[in-house]
Amino acid sequence: MALPDKDDAFLLEHCDVVLPDRLVKSGAVLAAGGKILYAGAAAHLPEQIPPGCRRISAEGSLACPAFWEMHIHGCGGVSTENMSPQSLAEMARFLAGRGVGAFLPTTVADESYLTCLGDALHSSTNAVRSRALGIHVEGPFVAQTRRGAISEALIRPISTEYLDRMTSLSRGKIRIMTFAPELPGALMLAERLQNLDILPSLGHSAASYDVLAPFDSVSPLSVTHLFNAMSGVSHKEPGLAQWALLSKEVFTELNCDGTHVHDAGLRLALRVRPWERLIAISDAVAPAGLPRQEDGGHGSTPEPARSLYGRPLVVRGNGLYYEDTGVLVGSHCLVPDCVARLVHELSVPVASAVAMATLNPARLLGFTRKGALLPGYDADVALFSRDFRRCDFLSWEGQAIHGRKA
């Protein structure tokens, strides 16, 4: 497989093409000037091909939009703790190798972590900043009883003054904030976040169903890792999860790694929620994407020490847990692994599963020309094996950032 040169036009041929609403067999994708010119059946490919266009034979591959990681604490041995421009670039490189274009490094509301992440984003190259779209911060305005992996010491009452401090420390790089909607001042906080161009996301919450009614009119709005660290589904005491399932407009993150949410919960969400409002996430931590020691993996990159926020971790299934408390803190999977489970284990149509990792997050964050292989959209294109275990090529805004030569 030949990589197109920077800014060159390219044509992906002999692949199946994943469009927002269907899979096109024997398709092609043509891009030039950083935009998609055509995506669909090869038989209808325009006769006029841009001069110097590189032809890439992709037989047996799926051509998809580049995937998005909206909730990720680390991967490839890199953690969002104490991040530097170098480690952020390494995270971006590793994710590109897995077919992930855009990502939001995610952290808890530790002032030093926010400062490092903000500085790293500010000081990174344009190529990294175009893909690392800002910080997703969980807390500090969350419920003590649903804090999950968040340290009790980091939890605070809602305060606009402290929000301003966090914004300053992060150099204005916060893009999503998770908070508990039952806390005093939560609705005011949502409005303040929107004024700062920060997406409000409800989570780490013990909210009862009744207190959530005011958030019906908040838009855009998301729910952080549906079912995890929140009040649940009940016929007598419904909570945030039940409100999220019944809401038509809210976007809901859904971890499909098979550990964070039982498959029965996934099937419930897939049956009840509009698929265009579901976002596949990984909630991955530093070891994600690397060979596992217990699997006999001996990759070129050794598995890092299993710890998060200074506390040892243990692996069970696809999850990583605090060793001392048994609290689930993150996943060993990445979003392509989650999409693979949706398609191959939960029978979700490939177009819908891919949209959960591409078009839906792009829409939530206000990117109207990303996340789909449609004419005029940015040429953010990935070539995956049919099982999503391998990415052979990735372009971001028309520039090849991962691939292998024939």
In short:
The chain is of the alpha/beta class and 406 residues long. It contains 10 helices and 22 strands. It has 2 domains: 10-65 and 371-403, Roll (Urease, subunit C, domain 1); 67-352, Alpha-Beta Barrel (TIM Barrel).
Model description:
With 406 residues, the chain is of the alpha/beta class. It folds into two domains: 10-65 and 371-403, Urease, subunit C, domain 1 (Roll); 67-352, Metal-dependent hydrolases (TIM Barrel, Alpha-Beta Barrel). The protein is 22% helix and 27% strand. The chain is built from ten helices and 22 strands. The protein has helices spanning 85-97, 111-123, 126-129, 160-169, 186-195, 240-246, 263-272, 335-344, 350-356, 359-364, and strands at residues 10-18, 23-32, 35-41, 54-57, 62-65, 67-72, 74-75, 78-79, 100-108, 135-138, 174-179, 199-202, 222-223, 251-255, 278-281, 307-308, 311-316, 319-322, 328-331, 381-384, 391-396, 399-403. The strands form four sheets. Strands 1, 2, 3, 4, 5, 20, 21 and 22 form an eight-stranded mixed β-sheet that branches. The protein has an eight-stranded parallel β-sheet with strand order 6-9-10-11-12-13-14-15. The radius of gyration is 21 Å and the shape is globular. Residues 1-6 and 295-305 have low confidence and may be disordered.
